Amino acid sequence: MAVKTFTSTTLSSSDVNTYLANAGLVYITQASATSGSSLSVDNVFSSTYSNYRIMIDAFQPASAARGLVLRLRVGGVDASNADYYYALLGGYVDGTSSSTYGNASTFADTGIYNSTNTLPIGNSAIDVFGPNRAERTYFGINSTLYNTQFGGRAGFAEHNLTTAYTGFSLMPASGNFTNIRVWVYGYRNS
Amino acid sequence: MDTETPEPLTGTFHDAATGETVVRQLTAEEIAALPQNLEPTVVSDPE
Hints:
The complex is a heterodimer.
Chain A lengths: L12 H9 L3 E9 L5 E4 L8 E11 L4 E9 L2 E2 L5 E9 L7 E6 L2 E7 L8 E7 L7 E10 L3 E10 L7 E6 L4 E11 L3
Antiparallel strand pairs in A: 1-13, 2-12, 3-9, 3-13, 4-5, 4-8, 4-12, 6-7, 6-11, 9-10, 10-11
Chain B lengths: L9 E6 L5 E5 L2 H6 L7 E2 L5
């Protein structure tokens, strides 16, 4: 859509609707969990958008010292074989490393980690590239974590199968959630 | 001897097409696929 310069103080409904329909990021859904071992979001990836943004916050595990991991999903089933690869480089506020790596892992690390179970801490912005295409899926990840001190991680994940996925699951690396929230947006294709 | 029955494992399932969210017990297959203490490999944690 071409850039338009408004010259009046009152916008027409046509102008407003055109700009709404041409927004860059389009809200798809929001989900949360306050218990249980997993939060699965189905029917969120489709041919409508090629790429997506997943926003995660308020990760609070039921047991202390847990990371948060992600799996793709289709037909109500998680892809849980060792087809995930990730490398997240990071550091803590004291200057030490918080980097994490996975080579043929059964999950993709979101980078979020919470060493407590008393507070919801940790967030992540994950760009997902082509999850609904019959191609490999790539993730760009930028996260905040807490491990007795704050830290950050940024990097990538990749899923090696050429399956068209329609959803994803989030889960503590073991145990249950006390809290988790997630939003999903689609990047408009054109 | 008292034996404590473990609480059934549950999951939250959100359908973006309908907006519905369901909390239900996990199936045996879903339980088998859960991460089992699979903490990501963390390099140089300060602890």
